[in-house]
Amino acid sequence: MRAPDGRSSARRRAALAAVLPLVLALSVGPAGAECLRGANVAGAEFGDLPGVHAKTYIYPSRETLAYLRAKGMNAVRLPFRWERLQPRLNAPLADSELALIDETVATATGMGLTVILDPHNYAKYRGTHIGEGAVPTSAFADFWGRLAARYKGREDVVFLLMNEPSNISARDWLPSVNAAIAAIREAGADNLVMVPGTIWTGASHWFDDQPGGSNAEVLKGVVDPVDRYIFDVHQYMDDDFSGTKTACSRVDDAMTAIERLTGWLEETGTAAFLGEFGGHARPDCYEGLVRMVGYLNDRPDVWAGWAIWAAGDWWGEYPLSVQPEDGLDRPQMVAISRLIARRTPAEKACPALARP
Predict the structure, then answer these.
(1) Of these four, 198, 216, 239, 253, which has the most CB atoms within 10 Å of its CB?
(2) Are 238 and 278 in contact (CB under 8 A)?
């Protein structure tokens, strides 16, 4: 997916303008070449470890998945805990947890939803960063080799390596990325892989200085034998881009960050997916959601889609929830509703997901 001739961003945009209609018509990839537009389905990452299913954590119900599909979505990002799926490093995956994931994947894909598997661990296992002491990079690779073997060869299952690596430098994260990808490919899986950056993989932090280099510098070193990966990026719109504040006071800054990252994707010949974004039920957030989704929809050459944060059966009054309440859509879902379903072949096609 990298541009082989290293041409400039300006030249690439000019060339794209000339050939985009043909590319849109011919591109192939997951979900029938359609860019992935959907929601996170939270719940399986909830609670303390080990937890008890249906008491302290929950996988999405059939009703939740059917609701998202009925809204025109074609993908869900499925967070879960690495420790529940693999209670001991370098050991077989837990049958009971794997069965819950299998059931969710079968239900979702049976409805036409692509499932993005998301170990929601912030680059840690039981509190220790990957690559440190008791959690070597090889253990992370072992985990992904086992999970990839389970779902290999499926266009409707995507492998997101990790949710929001934090408090780890890009330099220290890259070896784990490459080891996991190597293990996935060695397992015989050619599935699409999503690679997160560090600093919570925020677009607003992509170019931040770090020891050893920024995400923008270091992640040029991602190695995939089949060159079938994209970057997983997150972006919220509140004061500190965390999604924890009420007001969406930095919509312009968030859009500037996404636009700058878009330029980097063009220059490096790569693509990305906005795996988390969202906002409270208030007009400034609705405006931001519409601007963000509209921008991503308009750039299927480098943006493979998006997943809003978040649906989930146990959210209750959580302010960023897009789970329906008493049979009614949440206002955030109403705000983006007309931007979800793509109807024409040109709208559905997704060069960012095309096989190399």
Answers:
(1) 198
(2) no
